[in-house]
Every structure is written in C-alpha cells, then in structure tokens.
Transcriptional repressor NF-X1
Amino acid sequence: GSLIEQLTTEKYECMVCCEVVRIVAPVWSCQNCYHVFHLNCIKKWARSPASQAEDGNSGWRCPACQNASVQVPKTYTCFCGKVHNPEWNRNEIPHSCGELCGKKRQCLDCPHLCNILCHPGPCPSCPAFVTKTCECGQTSHSVRCGQSTKIHCSNVCGNTLNCGKHSCTQVCHAGKCSPCQLTVQQACYCGSSFKEVLCGSKEEFSDGFGSFSCQNICGKKLNCGRHNCKQVCHPQPCQLCPRLPQVVYRCPCGQTPLSKLLELGCVERKICTDPIPSCGKTCGKPLSCGSYEFIHTCESLCHEGDCRPCSHTSNIYCRCGFKKKVIRTLGGLFFLLLIAAITFMCDKRCNKKRSCGRHKCNEVCCVDTEHKCSLVCGRKLNCGLHRCEEPCHRGSCQTCWQTSFDELTCYCGESVIYPPVPCGTQPPECKKTCTRPHDCDHPVYHSCHSEEKCPPCTYLTQKWCMGKHELRSNIPCHLTDISCGLRCNQMLKCGMHKCKRICHKGECLIDEECKQPCIIPRLYCNHPCMAPCHPSSPCPTTSCCAKVRYPKKIHYEVTAAISIATKLTDLQLGDSVEISRLITKKEMKQARLQCDEECLALQRNRRLAEALEIDDNSDPFNIHSSGPKYSDLLKEDARKDIKFVSDIEKEMRMLVEAVNKGKHTKKSHCYPPMNRDHRRIIHELAQVYGIESVSYDNEPKRNVVITAVKGKSICPSNTLTSVLDKEMQSRPAPPLPHYKQTDRSSGNSGLCKPLKEEPVIDYFDVQD
C-alpha cells in the first residue's frame, strides 16, 4: 500500500539517481526487496564495477538488498511481468497492466496463485483454508493455506528407519527420520581385522567373503598348499599358484617356450617349487623407469624374480624448457620421473610485460601465456581523493563512483550544490564579494572563492622604499619590498665607504668585510691608497700604480730634473759637475715618448685640415650632428659582408618609399631563411629605418619579416654603406703586421694570435 501511494503521488525516489520516479518513466522492480528503480539507472548500475558481487561470478548486486542477479534488465515490464511497456491509465496503479497478478505466492506449499490486480511489492498471503496432516501422518487439522507453521501430534513416529529392520522411536517430528544408530561388527575379506559400523549404512554390505578390504596382503594359502597369496585383501577367491607347471609355459623372460627348452635337454617341472628353466638370453623386460619416448629394458640374462636396478640416465627439462637436467633412474618408477620433471624449475625470471603493460612478470620458470597482472591498480582517480581498486589495467581508470549526500556550498554559503554530489566535485562558483578575513582594511574587489588563500590586494598605496630614500606612490598593497633604483649610500661598518648596491633589503654587508679600495691619500704623491679597505690597520707601503699623463716637453723637463737630483750627491761631497753633460743624447732619446698610430693619424688629419683650411671644431660632413647612429658592432659586421648589407638597405629603402607613396598604411617583406648573424643585422637596420621586424619559425628555417608603417618608417640620409666608405677614406693606412719575437736559440718564430671574439647575442632574435 505504501508503494502504491508513493508511486501514484510521484513521491517515490530512485536509490541510484535520487530523483523522483515519474508515473510515465520506465522502471524495474527487484523481486527480492521490491524496491523500484529507473530502468536506465539500474542498467548503468549493473554495468558498473561497484555493483559486482564479491566472488566475481554471481552477477551484479541490487543497490537496496544486495541480492545478486545474473541477467541485466533490458525491457520495461509491468509488476507481474505479463505486459511489456505498459501504458499509464489514470484509474490503475502506475507501471501496472491492470490485470490479475497471477504470480505464485512465496509459500512453497500454496498451490493458489495471487488473485489481486497487478501490484508492486510482495503478494499477500493466501486466504483459502485447507486440511493438513501432522508430520507423522496419524492426525489431520484444518488450517489456512500457506501457513508456515507445521502440525505436530504427541504420538510416537513409528516409521521404519533406513536399515529396514528397526522403527523410529521419536515423537511426531518434521522431516525424515534419523538414521539407525545401532552398531554392527564386520570382518574384512581376509578375516584378519574387524570394525564396527552403523546399522543400515553402506559399509554394512557383505558379499559372503567379508564386508571391507583392510588393504593388507591377503596371506591365505593357495591351492598348491606351498605358497601364500600376495594380493591385497580381496573379496573373490584367491587365484591359482602362478608357479604351477600347468600355468607356466615359458621361460622367466617370456621369450622361449618351455617345450623348446625340454627338447634341448632341460628337466621337466613336476611341482610349483621346481625352478623354471632359463633360456640364456638377455631378459629385455621393460623397466618402470623408462619414458614413453625411450623404454629402459633389463640387461641381465633370463632370470626369475625382480630385475636389477636400471643403469641408464634420463633427461628432464624444466617446465619452461630453458634448462635440462640429467638424472639416474636407478630402477625408479616412471611416475617418479614425471614428478621430478614437474618439480624441476630453472632460476630464469620472465621479463615479459604483464597484461597491464606496466609491470613485468618476474615469475621463475614461467609457463604462462597471457601474463595477467594480479596487482591492484592503485592509481588516483579523477577526484584526486580515492584510488582505483580494480586489477591493474591498461588505459585510463574509470570515474570515481563515490558519492556524498551532504550539501556542497561555497565559503559564504550563498551557492549550493544539492546531493548526491559526485566525488571530486569542486565547490560552486559564487558571484558574491569575498567575506574571508583579510590582512588589510582596503575594499575587497574579488569574488567568493574556495581557495584558502585570497588573491593579493592590488589597492594602490604610498610606501617607502627599502632604503628609506623616497616615498613611492601607486604601489600595490601586497608589495612589501620596493626598490627605488637609487644607490644605497648608507655608511658601511668601516666608516670610510658607502654602500654601492642598488636600494636593497636588510643590512649592506652581513657576513662580508668591506672590499672597496682605500681612499686615504698617500704621503708622497697624494694619490689614494687603493688597497682593500683596512679600517683598523695603517696603509701598506706599496708602490703607487696610478697613471699620470705627461706632455712631451714636461716629460723632458722631469727627466732632466731627475738627472740633476742624482748628481747632487757629488756636489755635496765637493766635486764639480758639468751641467751641459747632465743629460746625454741617449737619455734625451729615451726620455721622449714614442709616437703611436693615433699620433700619426692626428698629424695627418691636422695637415689635411690646414691644407683645406678647415676648422677643427667644424663638422663638414654633418656626421656628428645629423644622420643615423650605427653601432660599432653593426659596422664591424657590415665590413665582413658589405654586399649583403647593401642589398638589405636597398630593399628597406624601396619598401619605405613604396609605403610612403602608396595608399596602404603598411607593407611587409619576407626574407629567406638565414643564419643568426644576418638576422641580427636586419633587426638593427630595421630600428634605424623605423621598420618593425619579427623572426618566425625554428632553425634552420628561421626567417625575418619586416613591416614598414606609413608616417613612422623613414629613409636615413646616410646609409650604412656610405658611412663605412667615408670612414675608410678618413682612416690612415693600416700598419704592417708585427711579428712575435721568440727565443733565437730555438730558431722558431710565430705570428701573434688575435684574441678570440666574444660570442654576440642577438637580443632581437627571440621566439614570439
């Protein structure tokens, strides 16, 4: 009744999706707990790994009662199962066919079918009355059909027991009577042992010779009266003596009939104790140690009794066939060889990948062909909280099937995701302003978020720099360490120097000593000491390394003064000194500074200026005051490949003239792929011409595309090639190369090697 009311009013919820079951939705009902589910939901549940039974072979489990089912529901039927896809009728129960149920009731002994209309849930108990007898069948009573209680009387059962000899002595009871508990003594076939068994059991059977076999040697006297039976305790009479003359027709090895041996003079046997004549041939009986491929035979001469131990060897292989082992049979049985072959394993480990593709087999002496992985996957699922519990597999793991039935809200609680919430679901987005506590009192502009840390505050404030040099404005609130870019200039611990670092945080020198040059003037030349800072010790007495500039005339006078000062010691002793000879011609020659290449170039320019009547301060070629400025590095690269630079400049001038004269505001040109040095030249020339340049693609197909913009790109008055030509004309002739003088004793001489050029970095040629 509760199911009918909830399905009719659409208040019944599916346990899989937690949605209301509509009256027109296809459903499926469990026949064990009678819960109703959406048909599509139960199909998905039955295919999921979470629904599988624990033993893995019993099908899928019902979400409500965990009852295992083998078949997955495929069609939508009414509750009684007669009609497929039943149509909804307002006057009938939803999902029912409106006909009689007709299902068999749960009571096993009720023969009547359910007589109410098609309905959900279990069928009601049968209302009919029937006459039933008690368990022993001696009395009868009228009870309701389907009543589960059994009828018992107070009489003794009296039914015959299983032995057929005795009767049951219990009071009227349910089920079969218990087996007879009386015991009977039995003897074995050979009569050497006895045992007691229950009356009426299978062990009580006897065939006249005995009831069971004691598994010992029979030992009864054979018909010959001289030998005993060597068979295991057996039910039938003992066999004839195997050594009777009328039984033995051949020699012990079986190759020669005794009739032929009698013809050869052998004595005829009269009784069973007479020896059996030997034929003298090799025995050749198959031993039990051989195999199906190679049978070992006895190598002794024809003899009576058991054969001697085998002297052959047998080869057995490990189960994977990698190693072979040789063993001596020693007359052992064949099944012992099989056991040795099965138990013999090599120490080779299998290096093949398992079915998961992640782990190696690593089995010793492996004979597996599929190499299934028995480990648990253990990788994290998409939720990031749980791990995959399936056997290790290939590919991605399935989505997490864990579900939460608690509401998932944002931090402020405005946005809510109602259950069921799949595992790993992120909190909902909220458009309200963040309500978390903040470190500052500035207004909050970011929305509510699920992260524990709020975004940094970007409110613009005024803050002092780290060195307290100036108060900086428009500084975001979250920035704490601000550098003004000025020099620190704080006095160091030495008390002589100031910090030369850019505005920084913390102390200037923490664990280091001041290493700036000492600025205390020297005693004789007044130049600074220049030794590493030594605040607690006097300046060291070292020679001054400061460079001074002397003109030629002053240099000559200083040299003369030094020469006179050296002669004063002779004057103090009373000697006369000739002043005209104080400085010799050789000393005068040594005192003069030698002219270098710069002097020669200045003299040449001065002579040309005087001849052309040009003032030294004038700029006739307008080189210093106007025109583009080309870097020394660009000029040096251009001198190496002047033709390439000329072609590039010609192309750039044509592009600039075309965009300035045409209707379009932009024009581009793509250069072919080239090396890094050529691309750098194009980038630097593009800056001079006001052209945009960008590098595209990767090496070795990297190229440069230039774009001229109308009104921005210009053609300079002096091209790089013209500037280089003018510099070449004004430059003096290069001096002859100097050769490096080596030791004459070695007899070798070599040229001075030029210094290795530093690698040039193209700061324009970067990835976009």
